[in-house]
Amino acid sequence: MGLQSPLPPDARERAxxxxxxxxxxxxxGAGIGGLAAAIRLGARGYRVTVVDRLDTPxxxxxxxxxxxxxxxxxxxxxxxxxxxxxxxxLCGKRMADHVTLKPLDPFYRIAFADGSHLDWGGDEETxxxxxxxxxxxxxxxxxxxxxxxxxxxxxxxxxxxxxPFSQLTDMLRAVPQMAxxxxxxxxxxxxxxxxxxxxxxMALSFHPLFIGGNPFNVTAVYALILHLEREFxxxxxxxxxxxxxxxxxxxxxxxxHTLRLGTDVTRILHEKGRATGVELADGTSLKADVxxxxxxxxxxxxxLLADLPKQRWTAKKLAKARYSMGVFLWYFGTKxxxxxxxxxxxxxxxxxxxxxxxxxxxxxxxxxxxxYLHRPSASDPSVAPPGHDAFYxxxxxxxxxxxxxxxxxxxxxxxxxxxxxxxxxxxxxxxNLVTSAVATPLDFESRLLSTHGAAFSLEPTLFxxxxxxxxxxxxxxxxxxxxxxxxxxxxxxxxxxxSAKVLDEVVPAAAGAHHA
Length: 516
Ligand SMILES: Cc1cc2nc3c(=O)[nH]c(=O)nc-3n(C[C@H](O)[C@H](O)[C@H](O)COP(=O)(O)OP(=O)(O)OC[C@H]3O[C@@H](n4cnc5c(N)ncnc54)[C@H](O)[C@@H]3O)c2cc1C
Hints:
By secondary structure, the chain is an alpha/beta fold. The chain has 3 domains: about 20-60 and about 240-320 and about 460-510, FAD/NAD(P)-binding domain (3-Layer(bba) Sandwich); about 135-235; about 325-450, 2-Layer Sandwich (Guanine Nucleotide Dissociation Inhibitor, domain 2). It has 17 helices and 19 strands. The strands form 5 sheets. The protein has a 7-stranded mixed β-sheet with strand order 7-6-15-16-17-14-18. Strands 9-2-1-13-19 form a 5-stranded parallel β-sheet. A hairpin with a 5-residue loop joins strand 6 and strand 7. Helix 2 packs parallel to helix 17. The radius of gyration is 23 Å and the shape is globular. The two termini are about 45 Å apart. Bound molecules: flavin-adenine dinucleotide. Flavin-adenine dinucleotide binds near residues 294, 329, 448, 485 and 492.
């Protein structure tokens, strides 16, 4: 028996490399996915520079501060918080020391056009009782849907969401699991098998709208959101989702990495089929061993790599791809507090399928709408001046392929929403308004460079998911990787955090990356 060496053979390689000598990774975009990618790459030995055209990090999750109010521009519901906690843990820290998450109960109120409402939460027994009172005879179907969503979650989320789909074989291996989940069915169809009350069908199927999917078109795999919410809760970050972004950006900087804000990337540089860095708007360039794009995928392939002949994501394919819906957002503050309102209210319009057809297929702006009303001041007085309420109303609308003239339509749309809210949830709204701002798909296009002003990148259809979605390891260029809503698994904070996790599997460890 030989003597065992006290040090494993690769110990020298694992000794910390001085920071300036580490391989360099450039991340284009400081969205939540880009920040998570930076943290993960840093933990794997890279020196990281994150470049974003905006003056503050967060992308869709940036913050609007106006007249003493703090408005999260985008995400408001935090689910699967463990995905965030992992990022702090990778840096030897605890998220709880930096960001306070508050679980919400109920998660949200769902209000229907007939005046009825249902408070949605995670406790099965409470929900069974509420559903029995709301739609007698339907609790059994609800329980069956929960069971199926739990089974789908175990496969769709636990086994597939943070796994790369780089090869066709990855997809083929997943086919039995997809079949098990009946991925060929739409979510609405799956739900409609178990419950007959149309309001309950809406309540159990609308969740994909949170990530840009049409419940009548997305695969039933998205039923996993129901389980995800129940299993890990729906949370609010004190100070707003902006506090999560600040925490992530501080983590990035705290590890010694660089955030270059207010800086446009104009081109991904490449030589002999390999990414070598990025060119910036001022004409200078940054060399890199690996480039990670958190920008919209169509922008990445169509604009930043316009000079690269493509195998798969050609201009033609990008033109034919389906892009998610847009959103119209009205941020407003009131001098009165509306104490009867929950933190989150989802107000369903009179039409469901018809309205979604208008938005996703016909791409026309209808007079009726469904909306999501955010009232963060219900949980957190810091987001509004004392005695005031902060709100945003989010209305799903067609993306810019719909040819709606938003410069003209924005104010009439805002007024329609105000009149509707005044008549339903917020009496005397007009008299109480003290601040107001709107965002339309045009802003998504001009601020975030999102193709067609889509709010959630490529639509999550079956044939734009997993292997069919642009890969996390680029199919077009060695050394280029994608993170964020436009790659696998897709949009939503948990989705983009999982996409960053996939990078751990597809980006070579820093020791294996060659220096620029
Ligand atoms: C209104 C709204 C509400 C939402 N609500 C929720 C919610 O409650 N819960 C949830 O989980 N999800 C929600 N989502 C979805 C979620 O916010 C997004 O899917 C997620 O934040 C997208 O993150 P990302 O990593 O893809 O980056 P993005 O946020 O898309 O950021 C990409 C960044 O890249 C930058 N960039 C692009 N091109 C360039 C370039 N050439 N040079 C430099 N920088 C560039 C942009 O400026 C941007 O900062 C919501 C989305 C919206 C729009």
